[in-house]
Amino acid sequence: MKSLKLLQKQGQFLKKQQQFINKGIYLFSATQQQQQQQNLNEEQTNQSIKIDRYSMTPHEYYITQGNAMERPFTGKTWYIQDVGYYHCTVCESKLFSFDQKVQNNTGMATFWNHIEGAVKTQDVPQDEAHENCKPNLVNVHQVQEQEENQNQQNKEYKQCLCSKCNSHLGLVFSDGGPPTFLRYSINSASAKFVLKEHWQDPNELKKQKNDKNQKQK
Length: 217
Known about the structure:
The protein has about 220 residues and is α+β, with helices and mostly antiparallel strands. About 40% of the residues lie in helices and about 20% in strands.
């Protein structure tokens, strides 16, 4: 009898163990399917955005689709300090906020971070970098050489892309300040500046609120 009960308990244990295994396989399969569906949705989103070269200037098209970089101090956004957002030239996605911008002497629009999910990075493709660039442009590898010659130290860098349409934005270096320690160097032809409407300074709003509370007293 004891042997029979022991066998029954072992059978129940093995049955429960198999149920746990099946449940784990199901959860893994479901997670894998969700990831595949997410990747498929991203691919469909990217494919649905058709790059219309005639909606851009030749300069904008060459930079956003040809992985080129503007020469320092030749762009239109590196000196801007107004309140607003920087949008992708190709798909109009909001990429960077004015409070993420850093003023420095690189001659490029520089940011310490981007709007969440708006920008992605990848290794710079060697075969896609332009060897013969226009007079006011350089390729991404020439930018790295200039950075090294100027600072006499090697910096890690990657290509910066719009997450929505995969257009080339610029480069991101690992020599930035806190909290991210990153430096996004962005072409003005890739990210156009749009003023933020109806924006008020937080300090001014706080002052107005305090004045209102005092009047009510």
